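hey can u check if this looks right to u? its 295 residues, i copy pasted from the old doc so theres a chance i mangled smth
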Amino acid sequence: MQSKTIKCMNISTVYHGFALQHQDLNKELVKQVMDTVPLEKLYLLGLAVTHRRIETLFSVPSVTCRTPSHYWLLALVADNHDNSLNNLQDKIEQHLYSLLPATAIVLTVSQFLEWAKTGHPFAVSVQEKGFVLFEKSAAILSPAKIKNLQELAKENGQLFEQTKIKVREFLAGAELFVMRVQYKMAAFMLHQAAEQAMRTMLIINTGLRLNTHSIDRLLRCCALFCYRLPDLFPRQTNKEKVLFQLLQKAYIETRYRNDYSIKLDQLIAVNRQVQKLYELFLKGSPVNSSNYPAA
């Protein structure tokens, strides 16, 4: 069966241009993903680029370097595999880490084709604008468009309002548990506030529904449309890393691990971060049709 790599879709975007500048990296990335999962097709959804500028007396003009620092991938895999999609995602990310940090989303081919056929906004956006890194065979897909944009806008608006209430109540619950000196349950409430806000932001902006409680994964996926989100939870210093792990682990460990412990000052710091996330959530329009392909 013939395979093809590094093919650009019809719609040209800025990130396509960046991707085309790094074809050697792309080819090595494809090879490693193929060694990890039963790959049928691989899309590059986006990439982060690090800019480095050097000013010295010996370099006129100044030297500027742009280097990819993170890839967002959609891997379509064969239907007959033995692992869960979440496990395949983890395998890809772990395998690629030494080459390039990446966030992988994995779907079966049949699921993606069904989504595209029914006008799922995520599948339609990928089909129309995605950069194809690899395809095992060139599948002929019918032109797709999102069905019933008015209905989608209504659903997104309702989801936004429902989530706003949920997040507000989780934050209020965290305050109540702090007053009762039940810090573990307060941390759980903050985790749920952050999770629910980002889940909804992801659905409204991409159409993608993630089955995860991982704050880290939600932050990475939400960075596809909002670069500011990961900056709300910095992880540069040891103190920042500890704070993030306390939030990341709060969903499970606050309820099932006796050794989970969070101090009041740490709880206050995490609460401040989640409050900023909620403020960012509120500023986002519940329906932003510019994020979706034209009908």
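Strands lie at 4-7, 39-56, 59-77, 102-108, 131-135.
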